[in-house]
């Protein structure tokens, strides 16, 4: 029984590797315009930092999906307040981490 489970696990691991290589890894989170942050009462520096945060999430997501990433490192110089508009970006990263 254990040998059957081991074989199944090995098969699943190979399947994940195939998915990582051949999957459709389009980044589906929407673009967030700078104006969104300004309309929320943030200043230009906050808007720039939010843009950098999103780019960092996107870069890490691509790295994980392409097998080029050695881990996840999200960079953010200043505090970016939570905003629902960021949720799709965090979901993209979370999905990439799961593979």
SSE layout and pairing:
Blueprint: H1 2-22, H2 34-39, H3 44-66, H4 87-98
Number of helices: 4
Strand content: under 5%
The global form is elongated
The major pleated sheet works out as: none
The separation of the N and C termini measures 26 Å
> How many beta strands in the DSSP annotation?
0
The averaged pLDDT comes out at: 82
Rg over C-alpha atoms, rounded to the nearest angstrom: 18 Å
Task: Please mark out the parts with pLDDT under 50 across 5 or more consecutive residues, or reply none.
Answer: none
Amount of helix? 55-70%
Structural class: mainly alpha
Give the SSE string.
HHHH
Assembly category:
single chain
Can you characterise this structure?
This protein is mainly alpha-helical. Helices cover 63% and strands 0% of the residues. The protein has helices spanning 2-22, 34-39, 44-66, 87-98. It is elongated and about 60 Å long. The two termini are 26 Å apart.
């Amino acid at each position: 029984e254990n040998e059957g489970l081991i074989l199944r696990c090995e098969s699943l691991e190979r399947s994940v590797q195939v998915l990582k290589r051949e999957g459709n890894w389009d980044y589906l989170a929407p673009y967030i315009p700078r104006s969104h942050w300004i309309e929320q009462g943030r200043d230009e520096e906050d808007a720039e930092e939010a843009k950098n945060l999103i780019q960092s999430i996107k870069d890490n997501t691509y790295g994980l999906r392409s097998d080029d990433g050695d881990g996840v490192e999200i960079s953010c110089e200043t505090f970016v307040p939570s905003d629902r508009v960021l949720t799709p970006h965090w979901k993209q990263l979370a999905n990439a981490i799961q593979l």
